[in-house]
Each structure stands twice: as structure tokens, then as C-alpha cells.
Amino acid sequence: MGVDTAEWSLADQEAGYSLPARFFYDPSIFEAEKRHIFFKSWHLVGHVNEFRAAGAFITQDIFEQSVIVMAGRDGEIRAFHNACQHRGNRLIAARRGRTPVITCGYHAWSYGLDGGLRGAPRTECLANFDKGAHGLKPVRVEVFAGFVFVNLDANAESVAEMAPGAEAQMRRFLPDLDGLTLIEEVDVPVAANWKVIQENSIEGYHFSYSGPVHKQLVRLIDFENYALTAHGGWWTYIGPPKPGSAEAYGQPLAGATWQTDWFFNLGLWPNTTIYAFPYADVVGTFIMIPTGPETSLLRFGYYGPSGRALPEVTKSCIRWMNEELGPEDIRLNISNQKGLRSLGYQHGRYLIGETPDARSEHLVRHFHRLCHAAIQS
Q1: Cα 151 to Cα 149: distance, rounded to the nearest angstrom
Q2: Is there a smaller number of Cβ atoms within 10 Å at the N or the C end of the chain?
Q3: In order of start, what are the domains of the chain with their CATH numbers?
Q4: pLDDT at site 308
């Protein structure tokens, strides 16, 4: 059953009023999002190159659900529910690793890299015990634009069907998509609803007003031509380079390599962004993982081209993101979440002109409508 549509009336939507404050802290809405959005959506796990070796794995938590994504001896990438088929014990706790076999730490049931049961102590005492019927339960997995995704919904449309044209757009700006290596992954807890964080990332209205680090970003791009575009289940926000740039992130550009000199961001419904900052030879992933009605985990992934040393400007960009721009945005996220609890606030107005521009909030409205429609399903 969906959430009462009266909570965001059609009249309010047509009048330009934003998603009401309750949608950012109400536990019942959070539970509806869990069931209708996150249990039915694609979740970015890692890059395909992390699965080149047999037995390489990454675990992906989706609320209380946990998924093992693993490379088989045949080169196939498979995904399984992270639960032993004996008594349900969680099999792997580590985020990443490599193992020749999956062995339960409770009663030593063991599974091959294809998920099949290989050993189960004392089951010889059971009449007609069939190992073939007790393998790990599969989860849907797909590779899209070099990245590996999982989905708990076996009937969901593919990533490519959800985001037609997205991969071509990514390859236009990210030439090394197929040859990336993980540099680092950083998880940051944030006391804010996941939608608050998403909103902040998909509007340029605050860039010139909210803090000094955003102003540094504006100086790197032609902000007046910053374009925010909705494409249904995916969206982009892209800024062309400012002509004549000779340095970035405190480092000279002379001799450096980079993915693009543009500020490129592509969002995939509901909570994944793949991006590149100007003049940085790194592809970033930014994932807003909900952990509660008013808490989230931000997962920052940084992937660099294999076999190519990172330029100093790229190293500085990663530090700048982790230590300056990210924290500035997070402070805004936390402050925004606190204000949404005010008895003096119900909902706001989208700032959208007749012709959407760099400061327009039309992409926020698009995202709100996707969220609202999903939880009514």
C-alpha cells in the first residue's frame, strides 16, 4: 500500500511546491521507500576489473539484506544472498576480498564460486539429502558501462533499459571506463535523509552562495552554461570548462592527464552518481545509501586508469573532494535535515524559470516526482 497521495497534492505540485518535509523524516515513508524503491533498484557494487581473479568478491548491503558478488573460475560474475542455506548464518562479513571457497563459520557448510553446495558435515546421516537443492540463492547481477550492479528484484528492467543513452554519454566524457582500477573507497556517515543529499547534488543554485569551496568549483567551469537534464530514470549535470585554466586544486595543469576538462555528472535512479571533476584523471562514484529516516552513508569510490600514474593534480582533486568540497556539502546536508524538522516549515517553492538554467531546481522536482511515484506503487 502506498503513502497517502494527499501528503503531496497535485494542486501543490502544479503550484510549484516541493515535496513536504514529512517525506524526509517520517518512518512510514522511509519503510515505503525501502520496499518500493531500494528493494527494486539497481545498486552499484564496484568495477568489473575488481572481478578479474577467480574468487574475488565484494559484498553489498541493502538495508538488512546482504549480497555476495563473486567471480567464478569460468570468468562469470555471479551474485548470491549472503546467507548459509543451513541455518541462515551470514557467510562473509568483509566488504572486499578473495577466497577459493565460501565456508560458513558456524557449521562449516561450504559453497563453490558458482554458489553450489560442496560440503556439509554430517549430512550423510540424512536420507535423500540433495546437495544440488541447497546451493546459495542467486541475485540478479548486470554489468553496465564497466560497472557491476545488483538488484533484489528479479523482474526489474535492466540498467540499460532504465537508462537508454546513458552509457554513450558516459563514454563521451570518460574514455577510460573499461580500464579502471580502484584507488580508494571512503564511507562517510551523514545525519541526513538520503534525498536531502541527492537534492544538494542536482542543483547549482547554491554554488555561488553556500561556501567558499563551491566558489572554487565555479571558477573551474563555465557556470552560465552548466546544464542539468532529466532523462527519466537517469539525469546529467554537466559544466563545460572555463577557457584559459592553467591550474586546478592548487596544482598546475601543465603535463597532466585527465578524463575530461568538463565537470561531468551522471545520475542513475535512485541514488548513484558516476562523475569526473575537471582535469582529474579519475572516475568517481558517489552513492547515497539510506540507513534510517534521517541518516545515510555516503560511499565515495575513486577509480583511476590502469597502468598510468596519477598526476599530482588528480591526487589534489581527491584530497579536495574528501577534505574540502565533501565536508562543505555534508554540513549543508546536516543543517538542511535539522531545518526540515521545524514546526515553521511545511514545504518550499522550486526556483524554476521559464527557461531552466544553471541555477534552476527543475532536476530536484524531477527527482521528487520519481520518489513520490515509486512509493505510491
Answers
A1: 7
A2: N
A3: 5-39+165-375 (3.90.380.10), 43-155 (2.102.10.10)
A4: 93
